Each structure stands twice: as C-alpha cells, then as structure tokens.
Amino acid sequence: MGIKDALLPPDQPRWLTAAFAPALVGHGVAGFGLYWDIAWHIDAGRDEKLLTAPHTLILAGLLLIAVSACAGLYLAAREGRRLPRGLLAAAFAGGMAVIGFPLDELWHSARGRRRPSRAARYSPAHADTAMSSRPARISVCGAV
What we know:
Layout: H1 3-7, H2 14-44, H3 53-78, H4 85-111, H5 118-121, H6 124-143
C-alpha cells in the first residue's frame, strides 16, 4: 500500500476524500483556536485587532472546512454525481461563518472594543459565526 492508496482509498469516491479529510483537519484547527481564544480573552481581555493568533486559527479552520466542501462539490459534479446536500450546507454555513469575521470587526469599530457590555459581547457577527460554524462542521460529516 502506497501513500496514494492511504490518502485516497480506491473504494471511496474522490469527492468524499477531498471533502472529509481536510474538513476534519479544519475542525481540529478551528476548535483549538476557539479554546485558545477563550483563554486569551480571560487573560488579556478584549482584542485590539481582529487577527490575533487564536482568531487566525479559527478563521483558517473555518476556511478549510468551506473550501474542502467546495472541492468536494466540484469533484462530485465533475464525476456526474448528484451534489451531496451535506456538502452544500457545509459550503454555505462555512462561508457564512467566515463572513462573520470582517462583520465583527466593523461592529466593534462602530460600538467600541473596551466597553464590557452585552452589545460588545453578543454582536450579530458573533451570533453569525457561532450559528454557522457548528452546522458547517456537522454537514460535512452528514455528507459521508
């Protein structure tokens, strides 16, 4: 068994491997970034800029989930298969979660960063990212 066979088993469709393996890595990266971000905020308080190290990991993981879902959709369409609904949902939800990052920056720029208010903590962009990231991860698994 070679590396190619280990990475792309012959009995699995290419779209499945292209979508699931990178999304699994993206899930781990985003989860690690999320836990680090919570600890970061406990220790340091509010962020002064958007792309801190934990936010970068969260964003990279969510991007990897969305891009892997899009790659799976592309390969499924190329093979003439019906598009997996789980991957459609993952691509949409992952994209929505990624869009939440610049929207969050706009929200905190307009409302202020240092005010420890509910408006700062529970911004619409936080809700968008939180409500979109979990379905993105679950949908990829549902496509399997």
